[in-house]
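Input chain follows. Return structure tokens only.
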Amino acid sequence: MKRREFTNLAALLGTGSMLTPLLSKAAENHLTSFFENDNGLPKNLPSNIRALVENVLKQKFSDVNTDWFGSIQIEGLLRFANRGFKQGYEFADKWFKYHIENDGKLTDEEYFKQYDGPKARILRDGPLAFVIYSANLGVSFPVHELYKINKDATAKRVCFDVADAVLHYAGRDRFGMLAHDDYNYMNFAIPDTAYWATRTNAIAATLCTDKDVAAIYWKQAIFQLEAGIKYFLDKEKKLVRTGLFKGENATTYWCRSQGWLLWAIAGLLRYLPPSHPKFKPIAENMKIIADGVKKYQSKSGGLHVLVDDPSTPEEVTSISMVLSALKEGTRKGWIPNEYDEVFAKAWAFILKSVDEKGNVHNAYTGWAVPAEQKQVNKIDERFMGFVPGIIIVAADEMIR
């Protein structure tokens, strides 16, 4: 973004700009055109997944946080909004406006009560207050989807603010990868941080009109992803390690690690020009993981909590992440279209794991550290907001 553009954007976001009414009217006209026909949810969406989406919409938008427990639900709704589901957009828009208005007024202690996870630094110098805990950096993902629909300048500013937090404020481990949070630099590194860091900067790069500045965002996105591939992907076994612990390779291959690195790869390829010299080599790593999933996927279609250990429970969120990324990869030609059986089995397992009321079962509700400690039975221990969000994203991709 050119300095002059940034200055103009800052002025627009401030009070008293004479251009604001004109730009708001233009955005309103764009939105009216976008939802000229409210298509509702896709007709081929299975009834149990439809019930799951409706459960998300029954929540108070103010109760859905900006940590990934909430942001992935909003992104799921916006996936369908992009296909004409106006109610999904309206919920997401209210969610965003609420947090813009509310979060900056909270004390640190009040803010921390909104989410589970480390209590890292809070940035308050933009329109949205957000915490530099890696999972909270995913807030820019649904915000970018909102921006693509309504062209709201505030949403665009938030996307830059989050990417700049990764560039300038967030910690790094000794390998240069985004730190999980302010307090964990050396204890562990996990693949989900590659996702947050990569996609936030790829989004900023696509929004930036100054090529020299965009190149900085692209460089960071590519660096973070390549580091994640280097340190987490076991190319011989074709599986993603749970992480690094005290700088050493994990002894396990956790199910959601496969999804995290695939989402990181998709989170770059979705935005990176196919002509870029890094595009093809990075896409090749998606195929490596796809082949590993094909080998280790259970007969029922899920992934085991520890992927190479069939004695551990079958799990649904991981195969949902894998399905969404690989299906997108084959649809867009990033990888060969040779995984239809994997997709069919995965989709069957997902549908079996969601009851008629939209409640999800077979979800591992622990995370990387307990997985590495082989605490494999943390299945459906409590409701976790990310669970329905992941299922919605997978459903959107599967029924295209």
